[in-house]
Amino acid sequence: MRIRLKKYQSEFPQGPFQKPNLTSLEIFGDSIDNIPAEIKELKYLKTLSISTKALKVFPNCLFEIPSLKILKLKNGILESFSSEPPRRCQIVNLQLTNNLIAEIPHWFGDLNSLKELDLAGNNLQELPLQFAKLKALNRLNLDRNQLQEVYHCLQYLPNLNHLSLDNNPLTAADKKLLTKELNLWFT
Description:
Layout: E1 2-4, E2 24-28, E3 47-51, E4 57-58, E5 70-73, E6 80-81, E7 93-95, E8 116-118, E9 139-141, H1 151-154, E10 162-164, H2 172-182
Parallel strand pairs: 1-2, 2-3, 3-5, 4-6, 5-7, 7-8, 8-9, 9-10
C-alpha cells in the first residue's frame, strides 16, 4: 500500500489500520511528526518505508511490529533514538539515510538480527563499542558522516562483506588499520 499525504497533513493515516493483513506500506508525508503505537498491530507488515521531514525521534514502536524485516526512514530530520532499548526486533534491513543522526544508542548492538544497515548522510562522529555486537551484519554503509575512527568496532564483525566509508574524515592511523587488518583499500 502506498499513501501520499496532503501537504501539511501531520496525522498518520488510518487506512493501514483497516487492513490488518498488510505486508508492505510506504507513506510519503513531509509533516508526519509522530508514529502511533498502534502500528505494532500490523502483525503481517514486512516492509515499512516512511518519508517525512518532521519526525525527530525514532519511534521504538516500529521495532515491535512482529513481522517487520525492512524499515526505511530516509531523507528527514531524524536526530535521536529513545534511550529505552526495544523489547524485540526482527528487522534485518534498516535504512536511516540522509537524516541528522549524530549518535547511535548503546542498545543498537542488541539488534542481533540486523544484516544490512545504512546510516549514510548523517552526522555521526563515532560508533559505540556495542556496535561490535552486530555479528549478523554483512552490509554497512556509513558514507557521508563525520567518522574519524571505526576500526575498534568493525574488527569484531565477522560477517561484514560490504563496507562503505566514503566522505568521512578517517584518521590516517584508522585507515592503516582498516587496510592492514580488514584488507580495505582507500583511494
